[in-house]
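Re: the request from the purification team.
They wanted to know what the chain is likely to look like in 3D before they choose a buffer screen. I agreed to run a prediction and write the result into the notebook, where they can find it.
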Amino acid sequence: MRVIAPCRPLEALLLHTVMYTVAKMQVAGLGTRTRVQHASVGWSLEAHAMVGDSARGTTTPTPVGDTHRALHEVAAERIRTAILNGTLFPGERLVEDRLAQELNVSRHPVREALRTLQLEGFVDIEPRRGATVSRVSTEEASELFEVLSALDGLAARSAATSPETGEIAEIDAVLASATTILEGSTSLSPTDLADLADLNRRFHILVTQAGRNRQLLDTITPLRERIQWIQAAVNRRRPELSWSEHRSIRDAIVRGDADNAESLARFHIEAARITYLAQRSSAGDGRL
């Protein structure tokens, strides 16, 4: 297999942004999430409907081989989503044969999917060692949080300038779903945490869309995918606080308080950054 030279972190982010803008890639988190399972490799990605799928009538996951999209695109989306929601940990091996079996495709589209994810910075491919989920350096994580803080602040400010009833209703539906999960159990299961990760991504996408700034949306979406990978670890440690902050951002937007909405959004990302870096420092192995 020809191995594509890996990009440096910021190069990967820039390339991912350009690829998204040109190709209008489907936003991860608005489609179908799968959880592929194999006991011997220690991770699982069970296929199920994501947030928003019920509105489209999706109740049973469609095997990759039965879709009308290019197989490698669907395979890449499903593996990417597993990385983003924390189902696949940094450093985990991605075995082509097992992925092909679980996704109901041949090895070729899986190999192409892994190459795509390598270009996006989510996967490392090394000769004779194969593919693994990439590890995010502490420096890159801090940089991503810093950039996202500024962009999320702008998104919240824009949304607060002219909030519309329909957009607020969608945000409220996400908040209600998260509340149901948080109040439904004293101990969150892996499925609960994965669902909260999807809802977190959906919340921030809706806030950005409410600002009706297409350039901001196209810029922030691929960055959101990268940061979601990191935030999945944060949300496992402070889910109640994170969603309380989401509700405060929502309330400021509804009031039309642009200054407060921006300040709260930036505080939300900064709090996540501090939590992530502290946990990473104590863990030291990237499995946050």
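For the purification team: Residues 138-283 form a domain with the Four Helix Bundle (Hemerythrin (Met), subunit A) fold (CATH 1.20.120.530).
Please add any questions underneath this entry.
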